[in-house]
Predict the 3D structure of the following.
Amino acid sequence: MRYALLVQGPPYSRQAAHSALRFARALLARGHTLESVFFYHDGVYNAARLAAPPQDEPHLVDAWRALHDEHGTRLQVCIAAALRRGLLDEREASRHGKTGHSVEPPFELTGLGQLIDLGLGCDRLVTFSP
Amino acid sequence: MILHILNRPPSSSLTYREALASMGPEDRLLLIEDGVLGALPSQVRHFESVTGRLFALREDLAARGLDGHCDAAVQVVDVDGFVQLTEEADKTVSWS
């Protein structure tokens, strides 16, 4: 089956992102496809390029990136939720006159229309909220 | 059949009432995260209406030191079983 996940919880302060990551690994282990993880609300903090957690803690940003590298999962971030939280890729940083950027590929800033597409196009869309 | 996923315990949130009210006769309810507290014998009475269709996630029970403390009416599944429940359902609804 083709799955997509919607992550609305921030890393570390709530369990939602950790639950979603565990579920993602389990569905891949069962032979399913994970088309995309869509980050919305405070979930967009999962895309923070500069995240540097202690080495003995799970590195969520790297873990999401590994899903992309190993399984081709798209990592889509709601652009409206991201911009207002200071999460900008190079293009948006330039457009808003900011020095430096906080989101980089494979995370991609995208619109809610993409989330609707996932709901329509995937067999299962599972939401993890704080 | 819809799989409803609840991550809040009845002891601190009334969300479970909305979840139960929206459930069809075949729908299933999976307790995850702090929601697994609802699977304890002291709280499981809130879920009487879905007896036989009530599940709790083993990893979240274990993380709270509660593995083995569930009420007998609750079916404990691991994350692999969680995925299987989503396979068997037509869709999922998450309550928080």
